[in-house]
Structure formats: structure tokens, C-alpha cells
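User: My instructor asked us to take a sequence, write out its structure as C-alpha cells, and then describe one feature of it. I'm not sure where to start. Here is the sequence I was given:
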Amino acid sequence: MPRKRLGLLASVLVLVAVSWTSAALGSADAFTGAWVATDPDDGSTLKVQIGAANHAGVRRVTLIDQFASSCGAAATGIGSGTTSGSTLTATLDIRCGGSPQGDASVDFAAVGDTLVGFGVVWARPGK
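Assistant: Let's start with the prediction itself. The C-alpha cells for your sequence are:
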């Protein structure tokens, strides 16, 4: 293949790669990913991981409270939720130190580049 055609082909491939990358970055939604907050009651770290919506619009949600003062140990909440506008509503199976505690419903509202829910403001790690 002549040098001129190789240069043109390389330029086209770069443009396609940049376009695809930009589209992929732009498709991220306000909820998907990792979030952290500080528990205002005891100062412990709170973490939540929200998965991308599947074909039915359902997301996996995992919440970790490194020290839940109500149970004197780490607490986890694992479940799923759906979004409506700028709100994610999830139902979580809460476990305290590994023991089942029941279900809890939580709403996360996307506000700018933060989430508000579970009584705190959540930010991306490192922000």
C-alpha cells in the first residue's frame, strides 16, 4: 500500500478511536461507580458501589459502613435498584457483622457531581 494511503488510513483510525473513546466516556451516568462518605454519627467511612443498569434498568448496589454504631460492627447492604430521573431507589438486604437485619429502602439523588442519600453527601473517591 502506498505511503500516502497508509497515512490516510492511520489518520482515519485515530479519528475513529477518539470518537469511540469520547462516546464511551460521555455515556457514563450520574450513578455508576464507587462513592464514599463519612458517617456523621460516628465518623466511620461509608462506601457504596453502584453498577450500570442492565437491560431491564436494574442496578446492583452494595453499601458498606465500616463501623455501624447501631450494631457495633461493620454493616453491609446488598441489593438492587432502579432510577427515575435523577433518583436511584434501591432495596438492600442489611447485614450487621454478617447477621441478617432485614431490608432497607434508600434513595440516592444525583446532585451535580455528588449523590445525596442515606443521610449523607457522597463523592467519588479522591474528590
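For the description part of your assignment, you could build on this observation: Residues 3-26 form the longest helix (24 residues). Try explaining in your own words what that tells you about the chain.
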